[in-house]
Amino acid sequence: MNHQHTEPTTSSSSSSSNHSNGGDSNVVVDGAVIVGAGPSGLAASACLKQKGIPSIILERCDCIASLWQHKTYDRLRLHLPKSFCQLPLHPFPSHYPKYPSKRQFISYLETYARKFGIKPHFNETVTAAEYDETVGLWRVKTTSCNDDVSEVGLGLGFSRCCKNKEYVCRWVVVATGENAEVVVPEMEGVEEFAGAVVHTCHYKSGEMFKGKRVLVVGSGNSGMEVCLDLCSFGARPSIVVRDTVHVLPQEMLGRSTFGLSMWLLKWLPIRLVDRFLLLLSWLIIGDISKLGLTRPKMGPLQLKNLTGKTPVLDVGTIPKIRSGHVQVPL
C-alpha cells in the first residue's frame, strides 16, 4: 500500500439484486473502516492519516458527534479540563475556558474534521462486520434508508428506499462509544402517570418545568446536573439515589480533581490516592451521608477501574441538596 496517499482508495460495484427498492453494492477500501464519527472516530481517522493510512468513517446519524449534538442538555460543559479532552494533533483554542461548553466542544470537533479532511458517510448503519479468512480482509455490511415522498392516488404517500453496502477493508476500528444507546428502566405504574416522562437524552433545559415538582431518577453526573439546571429554572426537583455513589468536588487544591488524581497516581498506589481524595472531599463538601448519599466501600478510582462506574464531579448540586432546593427522599 502506498503510505503517501492518505485519501481512501475505493472501488464499488452493484449487484444484480435489489432490496427494498434500493440496490446493493460492494465497496473496496484500501485502508481502514472506522465505525462512528464521534471524538474517538475522528481522532482515529486523523492519526491514521498522519501515518499515511487511508480510512473512511461510517456514521449512522446525520452529523459528527451525534450524541453531543442531539442527546445532551443545553447547560452541559466538559467535566474535565480541556487539556485532558483535546484530540491528538490539534489542541483546543487558547481562548476557550478551562471547561468548554457543549457548543464550544462541538465547534472544536467540526474544526478538527475540516482540518484533517475527514468526511464521514452519514446515515449509514453498520449491521455486521466479520473477518473473511479466505481473503484476509474484513467485510463490513451497512444499510441506509431514506423516506421518499411520492404521489399515491390523489394524496401523498411515503415509500422507504433502503440501500445495502458491503465494505471490504484491511482493518476495522470500532468507535461507537459507551453511551450511544438509551437505557430506560422499567417503572411500575409509569403508564398511569399524567405528567411528562423525559429521558435525559431528550432533556434540553428546565424551562418547561418551571414551578413544577420533578423527580429525577439516577444520581450520576447527568442526574445531578439536571437537578441543578431545574433549580435554575425555578423547578422543585427531587432525586432518587438507587445505589451508593461517590461525589467529589470538581476541583481540589486549585486543580481539577481528575488532574490531581492523575498526578498523584504517578507517585502513590491507587488505594492511597483514593483515601487522599476522600479526605479532601470530606473537608470541602462535608459528610454526604447526612444528605442521603452513601459512598461505596471501594474508593472512587478503584471502583472506576474495576466496574467502569464514574464518580460524580459536583458542579454545584451538593450545596442545593444541603439548602433543601434539591430533595433526596430517604
TrEMBL record:
Keyword field contains Oxidoreductase: yes
Name of a matching Pfam family: FMO-like
Catalyzed chemical reaction(s): indole-3-pyruvate + NADPH + O2 + H(+) = (indol-3-yl)acetate + CO2 + NADP(+) + H2O
Domain of life of the native organism: Eukaryota
Stretches the record annotates as Disordered: 1-22
Enzyme class: oxidoreductase
Keyword Manganese part of the UniProt annotation: no
Protein name in UniProt: Flavin-containing monooxygenase
Biological process (GO), any one: auxin biosynthetic process
Molecular-function annotations in GO: flavin adenine dinucleotide binding; indole-3-pyruvate monooxygenase activity; N,N-dimethylaniline monooxygenase activity; NADP binding
Record-linked Gene3D superfamilies: FAD/NAD(P)-binding domain (3.50.50.60)
Pathway listed: Plant hormone metabolism; auxin biosynthesis
UniProt biased composition (Low complexity): 11-22
Keywords: Auxin biosynthesis, FAD, Flavoprotein, Monooxygenase, NADP, Oxidoreductase
Enzyme Commission number: 1.-.-.-
Family (UniProt): Belongs to the FMO family.
Cofactors required: FAD
